[in-house]
Design goal:
Shape of chain A: globular
CATH class of one domain in chain A: Mainly Beta
Distance between the termini of chain A: 33 Å
Helix content of chain A: 25-40%
Largest sheet of chain A: 10 strands, antiparallel
Structural class of chain A: alpha+beta
CATH architecture of one domain in chain A: Distorted Sandwich
Number of helices of chain A: 20
Pfam families (chains A, B): Glyco_hydro_65C, Glyco_hydro_65m, Glyco_hydro_65N
Number of strands of chain A: 33
GO molecular function (chains A, B): carbohydrate binding; glycosyltransferase activity; hydrolase activity, hydrolyzing O-glycosyl compounds
Radius of gyration of chain A: 27 Å
Oligomer: homodimer
Largest interface: A-B, 52 and 52 residues
Protein name (chains A, B): Maltose phosphorylase
Family (chains A, B): Belongs to the glycosyl hydrolase 65 family.
Organism (chains A, B): Spirosoma montaniterrae
C-alpha cells in the first residue's frame, strides 16, 4: 500500500517527483477516449523507470501461446493489446544537454490528472548538469470530440540563461510489448513521410495486418506569436521527427503545440490512411488547442452530469469513486460495438485480450445505469456478433449442433487465454453472457432485444450446457465434472455450485425466452428456429429434465450450498488463521497448497447468490456469507465489491465499508502492489456497484426500481445518479434522510426502503429514514 | 504403425534407404555405452530429414521454464538433455560434388544395428549428379571398454572414376536442441586446437558451466597401407576439422579411421580436459579399430550371457525383446551413481531431465535381475544423494521438519518439470522411491541398505505424507486432496486410491524399517535419529494413526477400489465405445474432455494392485482389472506392460499377449507415431517385466524366488536369465515343460508353479507342466 497521491475531490495529484513510483503514477494518470489511450508518460526523454504505453482500441497481436506441453485444443495465441507508436514524444536539448528528469535536478514538480476536465498537466523546473534551469509546463489530452486525436501544449522557459534550444517532436514506432511471450516485435513499417512541421508514419501489425497511421503537426509560439521555425526532417527505421532549433531567451516562454492523430484500418481503408491522417491533422490544427480543450471540458461536464457520485465528509472515498468512474468513461464509450472493456483499458498491456466475463458481470450494470441504453446494448451485440466464433470454439472442444462456448478472453471472438484450467474449464463465463441478456432486458424492458439477438445466443449457450452435463448413475442426477468456478483458487473441480446453478438457470431462462419471443414475434421466431435448426420440443424437454434433476452440492448440517463436491473434505479455517506474512497467498504459497486449501480468491457461491438473489431468502444469504466470507482472501480485484453489496444487504455496515475501501482505492493506493502494470479497469465498475447497489441498495425487478440507501458512518452524504428507462435520477442519502431528484420530464414511481414513492418530473422527494435495514 | 524394419533375431535392419523415415531409423539405430551416446546419423553431409544427436551423460542445460502465467513455486527451469558436439562428421567431396544422400541416387543401401556385437554398419552406392559412382561402407560404435570413446571405420571406393576426393573429418559444436524453449544456444566455445590429423574443441554449457572436450584423430589407409596424407586444419566458431585431399582410383578402397573422445568436467579437471583428451585419443589410436571392435564384441557377449531372452517361433517378438534389452544396456550401466536413465536415453532429446519415477517403478527390477547388485544399489544411492534437494523441494511447497518430496523429473535433485498439475500434484512418485527401497531389499536381502541409506529416505518421505494428508471432519478419515495419480488423464483429483495407498504403505514400511534398523544396528540408528531430529514415538504414532484411518474410495456395489473420489459420477463406458478415428485421445480430444471422461491413460488402481499384489487376493485383482482395463487407452508407453503382467496372472493369456505386443515393438513399429523423437527407453524395462514377471511369472517374496512360466500360443519356447542373490539362472518354457538351469556353483531352492524345486549348482531340472494356471 502506497499513499503518495494527494487526496483531492477532482484531481489525482502527484506533488514532487516520485521517481521510484513513476510506473504507478503513469498508470494512474492514463488518458483515453475509448478510441485511443495512453499512460501518463513524459513527453521529453526519460531514462528512468517507465513503461511507455500508447494504445489504439481494437488493434492487437496474436502472440504465440507459451506452454510447457501442448495439449489438444489449446488456443494458438494469447492476444496482446498492442503497444502502439509513441506520439507524445518531444525531446528537448539545450545546446549539448538533454532534458531528462532522470539525470537532472527536479524542483517544483507537480503532475495532475484533472478528472473534471479530462486532461493531464505537469509542471517542473529542471536544473541541468551545467546549472541551466528550465521551467516546463505540459498539458495534454485525448480528445473526446475528435476521438482519434491527442494534443499537447508543451512550454519551456529558460530561467537563468539564453541558448539555442533544439526541440524534436517525434513519432516512434520502435516499441515493444514488455510482456511479449518470445520477445518479438509486433510492428512492421509500411511508409513514412515528413513535411514542414509535419510527420507521418504508417505501421502494420504482424500476423493480424492492422494498419495504424500516426501523424503529427507542430506549431510553436514565442511571445504569444506563432514562430516561423526551420525544421529538419529525421527518418529512422519506424521513427519520424522534425528537429527544430530556436533561440530562446531567459524568461521567455516557448510553447510547442503538438497535434497528433492515430487512425487505424479498423475505421479507414488502409490504402488511404496517411492521406486521411493528414486531413485529420489539418482539421484539428485549424481548430487549435484552446478550442479543443474547451470542447474537452464540455464533453466531460456532460459525462459527469450523468454519472457523478458525490461523497461529503470523506475526500479519500470521493477521490476514489470519481477516479473509478473517470477511468471507466475513458476506457469505453459504447460508440463502437466492435470494442469492449479490456482489463487494463488504456493503462497498461498486461493480461492481453479485451473481453473477459468482467464485462457482463461487472461493467454492464455500470453502463446500463450511467449511459445511453445503446451503450449497454452494444456490449450485448458485441457478443452476438461473436456467436459463430463461440460455436466454433465449442466445436474444437467436441461440442456440436450449434452449442456455443464463449471464450474466457478474446479480441475477435476466438479464445486466446493460455491455461487449460481456465480456457477449457472456467465455463461459467458462458452463463454470465446469458445473464447479461437477462440483466439488460430486466433493466431496460427492451424485450425486443430477445427477438432480434438474445434468444439466438441463449439457445446456443443452452445447447452447450445440455451437452456439458452428464448423468451420474451414482447420484441419479446431472453433474458437471471438471470445471473451474469464479474462485480460481480451485481448478478442475466437480459440481461447482455456481456453475451448476447458472447452467440450469440459463436453461430455465432460455425456455422462458422462447415463450416470450414466440408471443412477441412468431414470424421472426419461426425464421430463427429454422435457421439454427432448433428442435423446440426435444431441446426444451431435455433442458427441463436437466433443470429438474441438476445436482447442487449442499451441506445439510450447516444448511449452506457447497462450493463444489468434496468441499467439506478440506481443512476449513478462517483467513484470520493464516500466519502473518503469508498473504497474499498467491505470492507466498505454492499453487497446490492454495488449491487444496479452503481459501477463496473471489465470490463463488456468493456470486451466485448475488446474481440470483431473488431466488434465495436473506437467511440463506446470511448463512452462506457467514460460512464463505471468512475463508475469502479477496485476492481478485473483483471480489470485495460483491461482498460489500451483500454485507450492505445483510446490514453488516462495517464489513460493507471495509470491502468498499478495498475496491475504491485499489489502484490509487496500489493495494495489490501491481498498479505499475496498469489500473484494474473492470473492477472499477464493481466499485460503482458497491456504492449504488450496496450503499444505495438499488434494485430493479418486475415491480420496478427500488432503493434502500444508507450513508456509511463518517460520511455526511452520498449522492449518485441513475438513468432508468429515460429518466435521470439523483439519489442523495444523509445519515437522516434520502432525497430522490428527478431531472426528467416524466414522473417515476419507485420504492425507497420498501415504501412506494412517486416523483413528478423535474422535482424531488425526501424521505426521513427511521431505521437502517 | 510402420513396418519397414526387417525382422531378424539379432539385428535391426533397414534395407534400402527410407528417406521419409530417416529420423525414426536414426532413433532406432542409436548407439550408447552409458557414458556417451548418439543417434544413428550419417557421417557424411546429409541435407535431408535428420535429427543430429550426440549426448554426454550427466551434461544438461537448465532451460528457462515456458509457462503462460507464473505461479508461486514453479520450477525455474526445465532441464534439457544437451545435444553435444557432433563428433561423427566426415564430409566427402568428389571434386566439386558433395556426397549427400539427399541429392544423389542411392543404391544398395543397407543400415544395420548389430545388437549382438554393439555396432552400427551402413553400406550403399551413391551416384552423384555427374554420374560418378561411389561405394561407401561405414561401421562405428561407442566403446564399452573405453567408454568415453567412439570410433568409426568409413571407407569409400570410386566405382567408375578416378578423382581427387576431399575428406573432411570434423567436430561441430554449432548444434542446438530442437526443443529449446526460447531458441537459445546452450554451448559456448572455450578453446580449440588442431594438429596433424588431430583436432580438439572444448565447449562449456551456459548457466551450468559443464566443460566437454571432444577430440579426434584420423588415420587413412589405401591398398591396406597407411597413407601419409596432407591435412589442412580448419577452424570456425565452435568447429574444427582437417581437410584431406587424396587421389583415389577406380576400384580402390580408401579407409578412414576416425577415433573420437568426449571427456566432460564431471570426470576430469576442466583445466586439463584437452590434454586428457589428447592422451585418450593417442591411447585408443594405438589400440586401433580392430582391437577395439574385438573388445566391443566381447563386452556385448558378456552382457548377453547375463540377460538375453530367447523366443523360438516368433522372430518379431525375438527382435523386439532383444532391442529393448540392448537399448537398456546402452543407456545405463550402473557404473556411475551420479547417472540415471533418461526417458529417451541417448536416442533423442525430448522430455528432458534424466530421472522420472520410471526408474524406480520400471527400470529397477530389470537391473536387479540382470546386472550386478551394485547397479540397482547405485540407482537407490542416486536418490539418497538427492535427499537434501528433495527436502528443499518440499520446503518450497510449504512442508517442513525434514519432509522430502522427490522431483517429478530431475538432473541434479532439483525439480525441473513445468506443469503444476504434475510438478506439484503427481506426488505418488515419492511413494515409488520408497517402494524401490523395499523392492531392492526384498530381492537382494540386503537389509543393511536400510541402515546406511534407506531408513533416512523413508523417514523423510513419510514426513511428507504425514503433512500432506489432512483430516476430513466430514469423513472422519484422512484424505489427500489435489493430486494427480499415475493416470495423467486426471488432474487435481481428491483421494486418488493409488496415492492414498502408497502413502499409507510408505508409513507402514517406515515403521517396519525403524524396527529393523534399531535391531540391526542400534548405534547407527541412534546417530541417524539424532541427526535428522526423528521424534520416534510421536512420528510413529502419527504415522500409525494415518495408516489406521486413511480414506480409500471404494464402490460397494462393484466391490472395486475407486480411482478417486467422485469417479462414479463419470459417464462410464468402455474404450470400444469411442468412435473410430478419435484415438489416440490425446491427439483428438480436447484436454478437458479427456479429463472428465472415464478413460485411463495408464495403470492407476491397477498399478497399486501390481506393486502390492501380496496384499490383495486374485478375485480383487480380477474385479478391478475387469472394471478398469476396458476403460484404459494405454496412451502411455508404461501402460501395457503392467496390464500384460496382470493378465498373465489372471490367466487371460490373449490379453497378456496383446498387451505384450504393444510394448515389445513400440519403437520398432513406431506404434505411437513418435519414435522419430527418440526411443521409449524406460518403458523397455516394462517389456522385460511383461516377459519375466508376466509370461515367466517370476516373484520374490519372504519364501524366496518363484516362477509360474507359460509360453504364449505360437511360441515354441521362451528362455530368460535371472540373477538372484549370486545365482545365475535360465528359465526355459515350452508348451510342455519348464526347465530351470543353474549356471552357478551354489544350489538354489525355488518354486515352479507352486512346487518347490531344488536345483544343484551347474545343473538343471525340468518340470512337465500339466495345466497352465
Amino acid at each position: 500500500m502506497k499513499q503518495y497521491i494527494t487526496q483531492d475531490p477532482w484531481n489525482i495529484v502527484e506533488e514532487g517527483f516520485h521517481r521510484d513510483h513513476n510506473e504507478i503514477t503513469e498508470s494512474l494518470m492514463s488518458l483515453g477516449n475509448g478510441r485511443i489511450g495512453q499512460r501518463g508518460n513524459f513527453e521529453e526523454k526519460f531514462t528512468g523507470k517507465t513503461l511507455q504505453g500508447n494504445y489504439v482500441a481494437g488493434v492487437y497481436y496474436p502472440d504465440k501461446t507459451r506452454v510447457g506441453w501442448w495439449k489438444n485444443g489449446y488456443p494458438d495465441y494469447f492476444a496482446k493489446v498492442l503497444n502502439a507508436a509513441n506520439w507524445i514524444g518531444i525531446d528537448i536539448d539545450v545546446e549539448y544537454e538533454s532534458l531528462d528528469l532522470n539525470t537532472c535536478d527536479v524542483h517544483d514538480f507537480r503532475r495532475v490528472l484533472n478528472m473534471q476536465a479530462g486532461y493531464l498537466e505537469r509542471s517542473f523546473v529542471a536544473t541541468l548538469k551545467s546549472g541551466k534551469q528550465l521551467k516546463v509546463n505540459s498539458k495534454r489530452f485525448c480528445s473526446i470530440v475528435d476521438d482519434e486525436a491527442g494534443v499537447i501544449r508543451y512550454s519551456i522557459t529558460p530561467l537563468n540563461f539564453d541558448a539555442k534550444i533544439t526541440i524534436t517532436p517525434y513519432i516512434d514506432g520502435t516499441i515493444r510489448n514488455r510482456d511479449a511471450n518470445y520477445d518479438e516485435t509486433f510492428w512492421d513499417e509500411v511508409r513514412k513521410e515528413t513535411a514542414y512541421g509535419e510527420a507521418y508514419i504508417e505501421l502494420r501489425t504482424r500476423k493480424t495486418g492492422f494498419h495504424v497511421a500516426s501523424g503529427m503537426c507542430v506549431e510553436i509560439e514565442q511571445d504569444a506569436a506563432k514562430v516561423d521555425y526551420q525544421s529538419q526532417p529525421i527518418k529512422y527505421e519506424k521513427y519520424v521527427a522534425n528537429r527544430i532549433t530556436l533561440d530562446c531567451w531567459q524568461g521567455q516562454e516557448t510553447v510547442i503545440y503538438k497535434y497528433a492523430v492515430n487512425l487505424s484500418s479498423l475505421n479507414y481503408d488502409s490504402d488511404s490512411l496517411v492521406k486521411e491522417a493528414r486531413q485529420y491533422i489539418q482539421r484539428i490544427t485549424r481548430k487549435g488547442f484552446d478550442k479543443m480543450l474547451f470542447e474537452q471540458k464540455q464533453a466531460w461536464a456532460d459525462k459527469w452530469k450523468m454519472n457523478d457520485i458525490t461523497i461529503d465528509g470523506d475526500v479519500a472515498a470521493q477521490q476514489g469513486i470519481r477516479f473509478n468512474i473517470f477511468q471507466l468513461n475513458q476506457t469505453y464509450t459504447g460508440e463502437d460495438e466492435r470494442l469492449n472493456i479490456g482489463p487494463k483499458g488504456f493503462t497498461g498491456e498486461k493480461y492481453g485480450g479485451s473481453t473477459y466475463w468482467d464485462t457482463e458481470a461487472y461493467c454492464l450494470p455500470f453502463y446500463l445505469s450511467t449511459a445511453d441504453q445503446k451503450v449497454a446494448r452494444n456490449l450485448l451485440v458485441y457478443r452476438y456478433k461473436h456467436l459463430q466464433k463461440a460455436i466454433e470454439n465449442a466445436q474444437k472442444l467436441g461440442f456440436r449442433a450449434g452449442a456455443a462456448l464463449y471464450p474466457m478472453v478474446t479480441m475477435n471472438g476466438e479464445e486466446c487465454h493460455n491455461e487449460w484450467e481456465i480456457t477449457f474449464e472456467e465455463i461459467h463465463r458462458n452463463g454470465a453472457i446469458a445473464y447479461a441478456i437477462y440483466d439488460y432486458v430486466r433493466y431496460t424492458g427492451d424485450e425486443l432485444y430477445l427477438v432480434d439477438y438474445g434468444l439466438e445466443v441463449l439457445i446456443a449457450i443452452s445447447r452447450f450446457w445440455s451437452q456439458r452435463v452428464n448423468w451420474s448413475k451414482d447420484k441419479n442426477q446431472y453433474v458437471m465434472l471438471g470445471v473451474t468456478g469464479p474462485n480460481e483458487y480451485e481448478n478442475n473441480v466437480n459440481n461447482n455450485w455456481y456453475t451448476n446453478y447458472i447452467a440450469a438457470w440459463t436453461l430455465r431462462y432460455t425456455i422462458e425466452a422462447v415463450g416470450k419471443v414466440k408471443a412477441l414475434n412468431p414470424d421472426k421466431y419461426a425464421d430463427l428456429i429454422d435457421r439454427i435448426h432448433f428442435r423446440e420440443e426435444k431441446e426444451i424437454s431435455t433442458a427441463q429434465h436437466i433443470v429438474d434433476n441438476m445436482h447442487y452440492p449442499f451441506d445439510d448440517g450447516r444448511q449452506v450450498f457447497l462450493q463444489q463436491s468434496d468441499f467439506l473434505d478440506k481443512d476449513l479455517m478462517p483467513v484470520s488463521d493464516i500466519p502473518k506474512g503469508q498473504r497474499p497467498l498467491n505470492q507466498n504459497w505454492s499453487w497446490d497448497r492454495i488449491l487444496r486449501s479452503c481459501f477463496i480468491k473471489q465470490a463463488d457461491v456468493l456470486q451466485g447468490l448475488y446474481f440470483f438473489e431473488d431466488e434465495f431468502d436473506t437467511d440463506t444469504l446470511r448463512r452462506n456469507f457467514d460460512f464463505y466470507e471468512p475463508m475469502t482472501v479477496h485476492e481478485s480485484s473483483l471480489s470485495p465489491c460483491v461482498h460489500s453489496i451483500q454485507a450492505s444487504k445483510l446490514g453488516m455496515v462495517e464489513k460493507a465499508y471495509e470491502m468498499y475501501l478495498r475496491t475504491a482505492r485499489l489502484d490509487l493506493d496500489d493495494y495489490n502492489n501491481d498498479t505499475e502494470d496498469g489500473c484494474h479497469i473492470t473492477s472499477m465498475a464493481g466499485t460503482w456497484l458497491a456504492v449504488v447497489k450496496g450503499f444505495g441498495g438499488m434494485r430493479v425487478d418486475a415491480k420496478g426500481l427500488s432503493f434502500r440507501p444508507y450513508c456509511p458512518a463518517g460520511w455526511q452524504s452520498l449522492a449518485f445518479k441513475i438513468r432508468f428507462r429515460g429518466v435521470l435520477l439523483q439519489i442523495t442519502t444523509t445519515q437522516q434522510d434520502v432525497t430522490v431528484q428527478n431531472f426528467s420530464q416524466q414522473p417515476i414511481t419507485l420504492r425507497v426502503h420498501g415504501e412506494p414513492l412517486i416523483i413528478a418530473g423535474n422535482s424531488q422527494e425526501t424521505v426521513v429514514v427511521k431505521e437502517l435495514a
